[in-house]
What does this fold into?
Amino acid sequence: MRHDPAYRFLADAQSGTIRIRRSFAAPRQMVWDCHTRADLLDQWFAPKPLTTKTAAMDFREGGQWHHAMVAPDGTEYWGIVRFDTINPIDGYTTTDFFSDAGGARNTALPSSTWDVRFEDTETGTRVSTLIAYASPEDLRTVIDMGMEEGMTATLEKLDELLARLTA
It folds into this structure.
């Protein structure tokens, strides 16, 4: 695990938001590609020991990514990321929600909006993400589900992928 002193995960219970900032030692285009291409997302977008599989990916405004995080025992946790706005290699916004394998929304679990921004740094790329939930209770639900630990581990997998891609 690489310690990143610029990594931040800040949950704000009052506003129902999470702010994540993480730096990567890779060019912005490569970090962008890892966030927007299914073949690359499948290699990192789940905390160990889970893996990711894509059912469908349509990266365009109004398109979506339907995917599952898969546990070692085969249990699948499905979700959909709907791409609301895209500003190539600078950022995108999404609406995210849990679903079933067929793509039907799971209304028993919270949905969120994500605003993901990419910027060059002296040593690579910084990704800043604002995740907003409809209520503090929805935020509490995902925190209790392990969101902080899961995101930390997931971003470590992205770091490992980027190291392989830049080697």
About this structure: The chain has one domain: 8-166. Residues 60 and 83 are 6 Å apart (CA to CA). Helices lie at 28-36, 38-41, 136-144, 147-166. The chain has a mean pLDDT of 95.
